[in-house]
Structure formats: structure tokens, C-alpha cells
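Students often ask why inverse folding is considered easier than folding. One informal answer: many sequences map to the same fold, so there is more than one right answer. In these notes we will look at a single instance of the problem. The structure comes first.
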């Protein structure tokens, strides 16, 4: 089978190769998937560039990609909930391949109302969003929420999810995406090229911080007393970040001794702050599928690439400012 492999850190052209390997064998509790489509995430290209090398111990050559959709090709003897021919979506380390191996905890059956390309956009963005909001106690009807970068892959899912929960949603985006984001139901779209969200947003219940760095610290300026901030990218290396990334307890303890700007801001606002690193979960995948079936979420795709265009796709991804997700179709019969 063909699989995309990372051979080192750095330049995509030098460190990404499509290689031929044997189709993997499965254990009794595993499932072999024939991959149809793969969704790309910013984390994918950042791993290749080496931005997480201190936290991720890669052995090269390393497989690439996570989001996928496909068809069950073979099941282990212990598998009872899936049969050959089932259409599924989920998460697999090294999904950019003709076949991947998963466990039942990593997948969910694909709803018939969307095709494989659309389905491959959902797992990481959806699980990330739902786990993040669950970590801070969920969304109540009428909550005022700021979602940073609403036109991105996670952002476009998150703002639809928040609206489905009855929130009043603010989001930031560029001028070219204003009308499109409004179409997704946002209550107040902020053109970050012309407007300052810090002057528009105030007394918010929740900030969904997809950007990290200074944006995390600034989130505390716009929440109310007792408000909540949940981040997907770290603004500082603190004990919570270390725990989420699974760093050794001794290192986490030493990090906890450092002064923390976030701890200071939390105290000043009596706020809740959480940093969340997505973990695969088929219960959450099932919730995503229900949202799709109830037409609460629309998968958003900017560009579809073929497998042999993988390097071009990653170069596009690295530029940022995508409108929803980029996908790579391993097979060409995705209904487009």
C-alpha cells in the first residue's frame, strides 16, 4: 500500500515521501480501514516542521495525518460492532495512507447524509470543540461566547456548535470571509483587519481561544468576573500544559514552581481557565454524527487535493487563513 511518511523535520518537499509498504496486520481488537479521504489540521504541518519535537518523540520515518473517513476492510475476532463494508469516520495516527488500523474507540459510523470527503473534516475539529467546552462545564443557552478565528477548521465547527447550544456568538475573521461566516449563523462577526475585538467584546461568559500566545492573556480582558477561558494552544508552559502533553511528573512539578501569568489573571477575574489537548473518543464522535443528522453542523471544505498532491496541500495549510478544512482524497470516488 502507499503511505505518506515524514522522514525528518523541516521542509515539506525534503521530508515528506509517499512510500510503498505492506498492508498492516490487525490484532483481535483492531479494524483495518480502506481510507477514502483525510482531513488536514494545523497540528499536522507543525509536527513536520518540528514545532512539537520537545513534546513528541517521533521515530523516523513517521506516518502523517489523523482525520480520516473510509470503509471497514477487515475486523479482528473480538470486533462485534462493525462489519466489513461499514462506512466510518475517525482518527488514526498515520491516516494519510491507503489503509489504516484503528480500535472501536477511535471511530464512528458515517452518516449517510454526507460523503467521505465531508466526513473526513469532522473528527479532530469536532472532538476538540466538544471536549474543550465540556472541560469548562458546557454551554448554557444565552451564553455570550467569543470564538477566535471562526473561519478555520476548528473555528467553523465551534461557532456552529455554540449556536446549536443557544449561545450568542462573536467571532473574528478576515474581510474576505465576513459574509460567509455570517451565513453560518454568527451573531457578531469582527473583521480583525478593521476592528479591534477588545473594544467590541466585554462581559463575556466564555472565550474559546484557538490562537494562544497573547490572545490567551487578552481573553481575560473581555470575560466577566467568574468567566471562562479555554485554550487549544499554550500561551505559557505551565503545569496544566505539561499535564495535557503527558510530560513526566517531575518536569510538571518543576514547571509548576515557575511564576504563571495565567494564574495571576485567573485570580484577578475569579475565572476558570483550561488548556485542552484533544483525545480520540467515539462517544464524542457519536455526538458529532447526531449534530450532522440534525443538520446543526455543516462540514466546511476549502480545497480538495489528490494523494499525489500531498506536499502542495501541506504548503497551502501552512499559509493559514483557510476557509474551513483542506482534504486529501486517497480514492477519487468521494461524490464530488
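Output (designed amino acids):
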Amino acid at each position: 500500500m502507499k503511505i505518506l511518511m515524514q522522514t525528518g523535520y523541516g521542509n515539506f518537499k525534503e521530508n515528506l515521501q509517499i512510500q510503498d509498504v505492506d498492508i498492516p496486520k490487525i490484532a483481535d481488537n483492531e479494524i483495518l480501514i480502506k481510507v477514502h479521504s483525510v482531513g488536514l489540521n494545523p497540528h499536522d504541518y507543525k509536527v513536520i516542521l518540528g514545532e512539537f519535537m520537545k513534546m513528541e518523540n517521533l521515530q523516523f520515518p513517521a506516518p502523517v495525518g489523523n482525520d480520516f473517513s473510509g470503509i471497514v476492510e477487515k475486523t479482528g475476532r473480538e470486533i462485534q460492532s462493525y462489519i466489513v463494508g461499514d462506512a466510518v469516520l475517525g482518527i488514526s495516527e498515520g491516516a494519510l495512507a491507503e489503509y489504516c488500523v484503528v480500535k472501536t474507540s477511535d471511530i464512528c459510523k458515517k452518516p449517510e447524509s454526507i460523503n467521505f470527503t465531508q466526513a473526513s473534516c469532522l473528527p479532530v475539529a469536532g472532538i476538540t470543540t466538544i471536549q474543550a467546552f465540556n472541560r469548562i462545564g458546557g454551554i448554557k443557552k444565552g451564553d455570550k461566547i467569543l470564538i477566535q478565528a471562526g473561519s478555520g477548521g476548528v473555528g467553523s465547527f465551534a461557532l456552529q456548535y455554540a449556536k446549536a447550544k443557544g449561545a450568542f456568538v462573536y467571532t473574528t475573521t478576515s474581510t474576505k470571509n465576513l459574509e460567509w461566516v455570517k451565513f453560518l449563523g454568527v451573531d457578531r462577526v469582527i473583521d480583525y483587519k478593521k476592528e479591534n475585538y477588545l473594544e467590541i467584546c466585554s462581559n463575556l461568559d466564555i472565550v474559546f481561544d484557538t490562537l494562544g500566545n497573547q490572545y490567551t492573556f487578552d481573553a481575560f480582558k473581555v470575560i466577566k468576573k467568574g468567566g471562562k477561558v479555554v485554550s487549544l494552544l499554550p500561551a505559557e508552559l505551565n503545569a496544566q500544559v505539561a499535564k495535557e502533553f503527558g510530560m513526566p511528573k517531575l518536569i510538571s512539578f518543576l514547571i509548576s514552581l515557575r511564576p504563571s501569568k495565567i494564574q495571576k489573571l485567573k485570580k484577578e477575574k475569579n475565572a476558570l481557565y483550561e488548556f485542552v489537548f484533544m483525545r480520540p473518543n467515539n462517544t464524542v464522535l457519536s455526538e458529532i454524527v447526531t449534530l450532522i443528522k440534525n443538520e446543526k453542523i455543516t462540514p466546511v471544505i476549502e480545497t480538495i487535493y489528490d494523494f499525489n498532491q500531498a506536499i502542495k496541500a501541506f504548503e497551502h495549510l501552512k499559509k493559514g487563513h483557510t476557509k474551513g478544512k483542506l482534504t486529501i482524497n486517497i480514492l477519487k470516488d468521494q461524490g464530488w
